[in-house]
Every structure is written in structure tokens, then in C-alpha cells.
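User: Teach me something about this protein's shape.
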Amino acid sequence: MFKQMFYRMIEGSNLFDEYRAQMLEAQERAKEGMTSENERQAFQMAVDSLTDEEQEYLDLHVREGLHYKKIAERKGVTYQIALKRIATIYAKLRIDLGNYLH
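Assistant: First, the predicted structure itself:
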């Protein structure tokens, strides 16, 4: 019951969309040469530290812009599992990239 309430609360939140926007901004800044070498290295190390599956989820969410329901369909998991995995990935990246995300 608590999990369902939590997921409903998060679903209406823009929290993950904000993290997605920050990740996209960091990627764009890196492509445009607007980041320092330290930022590029930190970003690459943070993404490289993710498992292959986590990188795949991140790619679906950030690069392809898929929402959790579409990610769940593509990965063959429930919406709640997709949401939890994305949340976990962003939590890891937020820890690793805390100084670089504005």
C-alpha cells in the first residue's frame, strides 16, 4: 500500500524530469565544449560506473526521451519497477555528479 502511494506521488512529481533535464544539459554542455575536462571526466566516469542494464535504462529515458510506461513496456517490466530503476540510477548519478549538476 505504501509503495503504491509513493509511486503515485512520484508519478505526479517533476523530480525525475528535472534530473533528466540536468543530464541532457550536461551532455549538451559537454558536446559544445562548455564544460571543463574535469566535468567531462566526472560525467563519463559516473555513467561508466553504471551497470549495462542501468545504462540502457538511462539511455531510454534521457536520449530517447521515453516515459516510465514506455520504458516498462520496452523492458518487459512493470511501471513500478521501471520507475524504481530510473530513481535508483538518478540517485547514483546525483551522488557522483552532485558538484556538476546545477
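Now, about its shape. The chain has one domain: 15-97. Residues 15-97 form a domain with the Arc Repressor Mutant, subunit A fold (CATH 1.10.10). If you'd like, I can walk through any region in more detail.
User: That's plenty for now, thanks!
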